[in-house]
Design goal:
CATH superfamily: 2-enoyl-CoA Hydratase, Chain A, domain 1
Structural class: alpha/beta
Helix content: 40-55%
Family: Belongs to the enoyl-CoA hydratase/isomerase family.
CATH class: Alpha Beta
CATH topology: 2-enoyl-CoA Hydratase, Chain A, domain 1
CATH architecture: Alpha-Beta Complex
Distance between the termini: 36 Å
Organism: Aeromicrobium piscarium
Pfam families: ECH_1
Protein name: Enoyl-CoA hydratase/isomerase family protein
Keywords: Isomerase, Lipid metabolism, Lyase
Length: 253
């Protein structure tokens, strides 16, 4: 029988297990913040990924409630954060992205809304990214001097496309996201669950070892290089730049 739990009260991440050795479903459930990645949520997601790996699950599916898949970091918190606090939080997010990307199981992101900043990077850390026509992607981090997930963006699209998205912070429609490789499948909203289910079913019934398969198909890209790139980008004045970006764009979360 499926079981749904919330990892901790402060972190709205619901976890549902679909049977021993099968899939684990993670649901971001904070529509009021557009599923922004708070420190508590990031820690909860990391624990869920670690648990799925330890239990040798075949697949992990990440979904969300509300109008956004994930809106990145909640920018309201930077009013009370200095550079070092923000650096620690971004390192935790990078750790989550690395954990998810390197997990020896099939990972699926189901998107039925906006994926912004670290939320877009969270989706890109998954093997399969299934979106609806309501899905959009945007990568505003470089506009306040932050390189998070940029190498993965370049590998999934192309260096030129990644550079353009980093320079402009432009929003990509679902169709364009599919064309450039941010989405792996584009279906109607009412088909998202069944499409993800087909991927999970294939993983669960595969005669090939899932751990070996994921190692075989993923590109060789040292995770440490992503962290080094992030560290180099977090120069003094990060909090001030993020505050200016928030105030300039009017984005509170």
């Amino acid at each position: 029988m499926d079981a749904m739990t919330t990892l901790e009260d402060a972190a709205p991440v619901k976890v549902r297990m679909t049977g021993e050795g099968s899939a684990v479903h993670l649901e971001l459930d904070s529509p009021a913040t557009r599923n922004a990645l708070s420190p508590e949520t990031v820690r909860a997601l990391r624990r869920a990924v670690e648990s799925a790996v330890a239990e040798e699950r075949a697949a992990l599916v990440m979904t969300s409630t509300g109008p956004a898949f994930a809106a990145g970091m909640d920018l309201r918190q930077i009013d009370h954060a200095d550079d070092e606090t923000l650096r620690r939080q971004f390192r935790e997010i990078q750790g989550l992205l690395t954990d998810l990307y390197q997990a020896p199981l099939v990972t699926v992101a189901v998107l039925d809304g906006d994926a912004v900043g670290a939320g877009a990077d969270l989706a890109l850390a998954c093997d399969h990214r299934i979106g609806s026509p309501r899905t959009t992607f945007r990568f505003p981090g470089p506009q306040f001097g932050l390189l998070l997930g940029t190498r993965r963006l370049a590998q999934e699209t192309s260096p030129a496309i990644a550079q353009g998205l980093a320079l402009t912070g432009a929003k990509l429609s679902a169709r364009r996201a599919l064309d450039v490789g941010l989405l792996t499948q584009l279906v109607e909203s009412d088909q998202l669950e069944s499409t993800a289910g087909a991927v999970v079913g294939a993983a669960g019934s595969s005669v090939v070892g899932i751990a070996g398969l994921t190692r075989a198909v993923r590109r060789d890209r040292p995770a440490q290089s992503d962290l080094e790139l992030l560290e180099e980008s977090m120069t003094p004045g990060l909090a001030q730049r993020m505050t200016a970006f928030r105030d300039r764009t009017g984005r509170r979360r």
